[in-house]
Amino acid sequence: MPRMLSRILDLTEVTVLCSAISLLALVIIANVFARFFYKSIYYVEEVSRFLIIMITFVGASYAMRKARHIRMGAFLDLMPEWLEKIFVIFISLVSAAVMFIMALHAWNYMQDAVEMESVTSALRAPKWIFRLIIPVGFFASGVQCLRTVWKNLVEKEVWLSADQQSEYEELLEGEEA
Known about the structure:
Mean pLDDT: 88
Order of helices and strands: HHHHHHEEH
Radius of gyration: 20 Å
């Protein structure tokens, strides 16, 4: 069941990221043509901002899942495997705590927009809708960090994320320099 849930979440993240990036490109290109031939599309800036926020926070969770986030790979690769595992677990726990704290603050930030009933200037859409992805993205990133901790506790090998094993050892064994 966890593997199936992970695949569904992975497919959802990839679909959202690909769709958002494609839509962002289309909207911006359409606006360039509209500006050249007539006048700008008035809501492009708001839609673009929302898409960039979505790409950022869904992409953060995806990067955590695939271990494509900023990390100290060279430092970890020089450690013995047992020490690398301890560091990965510690770093993942601290990262999870930070992500959950940020998710809480982002949720409060979104709640302020709900209470103030503020709307965007061009689309007149509630601002909280555009801000909802922020706490969701932070929360999803925190969950990915906890998955990394769990994977390292139950597996013998070092895992940089729940889906990505440490690469350095594989390169040394499988490839010639």
